[in-house]
Design goal:
Layout: H1 2-9, E1 47-53, E2 56-62, H2 68-82, E3 86-89, E4 92-96, H3 100-110
Antiparallel strand pairs: 1-2, 2-4, 3-4
Length: 114
């Protein structure tokens, strides 16, 4: 079979994601989705870092305990305020560009701990 066999059949290429609760593949998992409850902004201390993706800076905001709708709403408010693009996924907000200094001043104005 050799190398070509693996390439054609897809063996060894991808990792299978498994559910942390039941151990099944995520596509076959029957566990109910976990509901994330939002904490008030005053009780949260978000962290942010800068990453480079394809040579361009991206600011990532983490340590947010927000429901999916609240996370998307906050991402939309930040994108409008900063005049940039971005996304909210997997409990994080990603903003295009370097915005760490601005976020350090902006997040406490929105009610987060400084």
């Amino acid at each position: 079979m050799g190398r070509e066999g693996k390439r054609l059949t897809g063996e060894g290429w991808g990792l299978v994601k498994r559910c942390a609760t039941c151990g099944q593949e995520e596509s076959r998992c029957t566990c109910p989705p976990k509901a994330v409850t939002s904490l008030p902004f005053e009780k949260q201390r978000p962290r942010f870092r800068m990453e480079k993706r394809r040579g361009k800076p991206v600011t990532v905001i983490t340590h947010l305990t927000l429901s999916e709708s609240d996370l998307k709403d906050l991402a939309s408010r930040l994108k409008n305020r900063l005049g940039t693009g971005g996304t909210a996924k997997d409990g994080e907000i990603e903003l295009q560009g370097e915005h760490r200094e601005i976020l350090a001043a902006l997040l406490p104005q929105l009610g987060f701990k400084g």
